[in-house]
Amino acid sequence: MAKQNRRTARTTQRQRALDILFEADEKGLRSREELLALLEERQVLSTAQTPISGFGVEIVRAYAAHIGDVDTMIEASSEDWSLPRMNTVDRNCLRGAIAELMYVGTKRAAVIVEWAGLVRLLSTDKSVGFVMGVMNRAADIIEREEAHAQQGVSQQVDVEMDDAGLIAALQRGQEETPEEALEEEPEATRKDALEETPEESTEETQKEVPEEILEETP
Length: 218
Prior knowledge:
It is built from twelve helices and no strands. It is mainly alpha-helical.
């Protein structure tokens, strides 16, 4: 009875979620639609004193929406036991726990302590260490993936900022180039170039030719 007094509302709802996952497993209900149909039925008709609601519904829906991803994570985190080789309670405790870790956003410590407590209550003493080991390895994998994803986002932001800086620099460069530099030379400059050879220079050249040379020319 002392154990029951320490149970929180969330603990109770985790157990209600486990009830549905266990029942679906026993009945061979493996699709999202089948699992959600069973959930809807148990929300209306349940033999439990406290029917599933709120937080328990969220866990079942999270698993139903990501059945393949959750089961794959469990397999990846279990070193020696595949899902079919696990006992039904352990397998579905792990499904509820990993769905909560991956898609509900509960803190790691709370998930591990709460679901390990359900295993201790409903399965065997040997199962507790096994399930805790799988949950911890899964949590490590999830945290590494989140860290890598965050790093990728940070690098992408840096690249975008660099690109934006380059574009801004190019735009500034265009703004700093005077329009006159892109136009043809002004008319005044062309006039000066033409006036560099005045008519007087031709006459002076002719005067500089000695008269003797002119006389020798037939």
